[in-house]
Design goal:
This protein has 248 residues and is an all-alpha fold. 71% of the residues lie in helices and 0% in strands. Helix 2 (34-46) runs parallel beside helix 4 (68-80).
Length: 248
């Protein structure tokens, strides 16, 4: 294997979805209720007005100290601001109030991942999976953590489960292809990258991964076409692949 191939392969990285907020419909209420303040806070977070949103979430919690969803959502806001200790406190409080909600476990797992506490992240994703076993993003994110821990078989199982639950999710297919590629299982990687590019035709990185897999499978002409598509879509590393593999 040449140095150039090694360098190009390094740019293949996992893509992690962020499931931060329960995007429930905005319900305005004329009542001065905890839920009304919470929904207003969520709306502001979606608009990127995080500090203002926290103000409304504070009022929601002040109205109802047992509003687990408000604590979870405020934890999300603190996470976005990288105020991790505050986020951790809110996720813990949400779990303490209502241990049946999966989102606080899911979001706390994201926080543990950001802090490189991967074993703790795995534990929380496991709990979230028990509570919401049909939620694809749980397996998608847990697969990423398993991949980081070199738990390759577990990562593949998680990514495959994500594709079973959400067959049109390009991130799930991409991460599955990436894991197979790193294991030099190029035929399986090619199949997964094809699905990723099918469900997101603007996903330049997926076309790049598809090209690499096809090149390894001896399909040079197809590989070069996909490198060209990746370059057209703005994936910068595709230019090096075209130069190294296709003489362009």
């Amino acid at each position: 294997m040449t140095t150039s191939i090694l360098l190009i392969r390094k740019v293949l990285a996992y893509v992690l979805p962020i499931l931060l907020i329960s995007l429930t419909p905005l319900l305005f209420s004329c009542q001065d209720s905890s839920d009304a303040y919470m929904e207003k806070g969520k709306a502001l977070l979606r608009e990127g007005k995080t500090r203002e949103g926290i103000g409304y979430l504070n009022q929601a919690i002040g109205k109802d100290l047992e509003n687990a969803e408000a604590f979870n959502t405020r934890g999300v806001a603190y996470f976005e601001l990288k105020e991790y200790p505050n986020a951790m406190l809110d996720y813990r409080q949400a779990i303490s109030i209502d241990p049946s909600l999966y989102r606080p476990y899911f979001n706390r797992a994201l926080l543990f991942t950001a802090q490189n506490q991967l074993d703790s992240a795995l534990a929380d994703y496991g709990k979230a999976a028990q509570l919401a076993p049909d939620t694809a993003d749980i397996y998608l994110n847990r697969g990423q953590v398993n991949a980081l821990l070199d738990n390759t078989s577990e990562a593949i199982q998680d990514f495959e489960r994500a594709t079973q639950l959400d067959g049109e999710n390009p991130l799930a297919w991409y991460n599955l292809g990436n894991t197979y590629y790193r294991q030099q299982q190029y035929a399986q990687a090619e199949m997964a990258f094809k699905q990723a590019s099918r469900y997101d035709p603007k996903f330049g990185k997926a076309f790049y991964g598809l090209g690499l897999s096809q090149y390894e499978n001896g399909e040079k002409d197809l590989a070069c076409l996909n490198f060209q598509q990746a370059e057209r879509l703005g994936f910068a590393e595709a230019a090096a692949a075209l130069s190294n593999y296709c003489g362009k």
